[in-house]
Specification:
Blueprint: E1 3-6, E2 26-30, E3 42-47, E4 60-72, E5 86-102, E6 104-105, E7 108-109, E8 122-124, H1 127-136, E9 140-142, E10 145-147, E11 164-165, H2 200-217, E12 221-225, E13 235-239, E14 242-250, H3 263-272, E15 276-282, E16 290-295, H4 297-302
Parallel strand pairs: 1-3, 11-16, 14-15
Antiparallel strand pairs: 1-8, 2-5, 3-4, 4-5, 6-7, 9-10, 12-13, 13-14, 15-16
Length: 319
């Protein structure tokens, strides 16, 4: 069943600002909602009238996504009462609406609930309400699954995109808190293929176009896209007489908790060393996406600044 996740810009008097929500990346919630937030379910983001800088706005729905792995907050003391327990869920397939959908149309709210229920952080909604909200944002739902394609108008024209390179405290790959590395089902996250985005190809291609635009503006010599060649990188160019390999990773969320990289890409990172760059593109559906550049990720792994874990092995019957 679809759900509503409330993500307000501010809370009354800062009373609930301790919740570490991260739009399109993760959702932090108390134990009272553990039976409503289920892995694989679709959700719609909602925010109330309170805005930053003491401003007000119309309550609205502003994006949708899918609930991913659910894990205990590592700072939670599980010897305490259940009501004090806290959880995180990762968010996959996040897509922000190009224009927010107001909470009611023609004075009729999408959710027929009592006034005191609008502040409830996690709410169940019926499938037809989910579809109506997405339809107002120009998305189609077929057999319960939202459809995102170029005709959905979520991809801004590349000419309108103005990327920003970030460094330091603004970096997009953020460390995660230590945890048991187990999800709510007690299964290891590393061996799951669930997290692969249904929209990965679409958003990945757009992220490559964003990076290509940046490199083109930098007048990189002999710049060309080579993603189809399966070399272990997406774009290459020459700097003096050396070939520079660029692998692009994109997300519609605000940042990355982790990055999935293929064995071929990791082998290329090892062999190319200082000539291999990761370009991370966050908020890739916006007109001002953020880009973090990581040079020689393999050396950072050797220095224990990055970790790498096997996600999937492929088995086949020997002929």
């Amino acid at each position: 069943m679809p759900i509503i996740l409330v993500q307000n810009e501010v809370t009354v008097g800062g009373k609930y600002d301790h919740w570490e929500d991260d739009e399109g990346v993760k959702y932090h919630f108390p134990n009272q909602y553990i039976n409503k937030i289920r892995k694989g379910d679709w959700f719609v983001y909602y925010r109330g009238s309170r805005r930053a800088n003491n401003k007000r706005g119309i309550p609205e729905y502003f994006g949708f996504g899918r609930i991913g792995d659910i894990s205990p907050d590592p700072l939670t003391d599980f010897t305490k009462a259940k009501k004090d327990l806290r959880w995180y869920c990762e968010i996959y397939d996040y897509t922000r609406f190009s224009s927010p959908v107001p909470f009611k149309i023609a004075n009729q709210p999408f959710e027929q609930i009592h006034d005191n229920q609008w502040s409830v952080a996690v709410r169940n909604i019926k499938q037809d309400i989910f579809q109506r909200i997405l339809a107002m944002a120009s998305f189609e739902v077929i057999d319960g699954e939202p459809i995102v394609n170029p005709s959905s108008k979520v991809i801004p024209p590349i000419d309108s995109v103005d990327p920003v390179i970030v460094t330091g405290s603004q970096e997009l790959l953020v460390p995660t808190k230590a945890s048991s590395n187990k999800n709510i089902d007690g299964q290891s996250k590393e061996n799951k293929s669930f997290r692969y985005s249904r929209f990965a190809k679409l958003y990945g291609d757009h992220s490559e176009n964003i990076v290509y635009k940046v490199l083109l503006n930098n007048r990189c010599y002999q710049l060309r896209s080579v993603a189809k060649d399966k070399l272990g990188w997406d774009i290459e160019y020459y700097e003096n007489d050396r070939l520079v390999a660029v692998e692009v990773k994109g997300t519609s969320g605000k940042r990355f908790l982790s990055i999935e990289i293929t064995a071929n890409e990791w082998k290329a990172a090892e062999s190319k060393a200082d000539n291999y760059y990761l370009y991370l593109v966050a908020d890739c559906l916006s007109k001002q996406p953020k880009i973090q550049v990581i040079k020689n990720p393999y050396s950072l792994y050797l220095k224990k600044q990055l970790t790498i874990d096997p996600l999937l092995y492929r088995l086949g019957l020997k002929g």
